Amino acid sequence: MRHPIDVIAMFAALWLLAAMVLDALTPKELTAIMIGVAIGPAVIITAVFYYLRCPRTDFAVLFAALWLISDIAITLISPKPLPTWLIMSGFAPALIVGVVLHWRRFLRRHEHLAWPPAR
Fold first, then answer.
1. How far apart are CA 40 and CA 95, in angstroms?
2. With the CA atoms of 38, 35, 58 and 45 taken in that order, what torsion angle do they form, in degrees rounded to the nearest 10?
3. pLDDT in tens, 67-108
4. HSE value, Cβ hemisphere, 13 Å, CA-based, for 12
5. How many whole angstroms separate alpha carbon 55 and alpha carbon 64?
6. Integer Cα distance of 27 and 6 in angstroms
7. Which of 41, 89, 87, 94 is nearest to 63 (CA)?
8. Which of 70, 60, 65 is nearest to 26 (CA)?
9. I need a surface site. Which of 2, 13, 48, 117 has the fewest CB within 10 A?
10. Cα dihedral sign for 29, 32, 33, 39?
11. Which of 53, 87, 50 is nearest to 70 (CA)?
12. Exposed/middle/buried for 25, CB within 10 Å: 0-12, 13-18, 19+?
């Protein structure tokens, strides 16, 4: 069973790591505090769904959507324009999850295309 203290410690460490990495990648005017505030709600929501044992596919979609929302929030609070590659990195998890879901559906297409038996 997942202990709440373990989940809090794990996601707090991930939140701090993400804030520091994004601080190193963004312009100097955007501080780690600003980034931490922008990504904080997404980390908390992700931690709650992790603790509730959300199914893996649903969790991946939730994470991708929250990462994209956090990227948009960072772009909105940034005093200087962010590099294009950094903005596009917000779309990467959503793109990867979408490709994987469509690939899994493509592999199972024969289950959905079966003809009904003739009588």
1. 22
2. -50
3. 999 999 999 999 988 889 888 988 999 999 999 999 998 888
4. 6
5. 14
6. 33
7. 94
8. 70
9. 117
10. positive
11. 87
12. middle
Q: Are 10 and 51 in contact (CB under 8 A)?
A: no
Residues sharing a CB contact under 8 Å with residue 91, sequence separation 6 or more, in sequence order: 68, 71
Choose among 49, 43, 33: nearest CA to 69: 43
- pTM for this model (two decimals): 0.82
| 80 DSSP assignment | S
First vs last C-alpha separation in the chain: 51
Beta-sheet strands, E only, within the chain: none
CA distance 79 to 46: 27
Tokens at 79, concatenated: 């005093």
> What is the SS3 string spanning 40-97?
HHHHHHHHHHHHCCCCHHHHHHHHHHHHHHHHHHHHHHCCCCCCHHHHHHCCHHHHHH
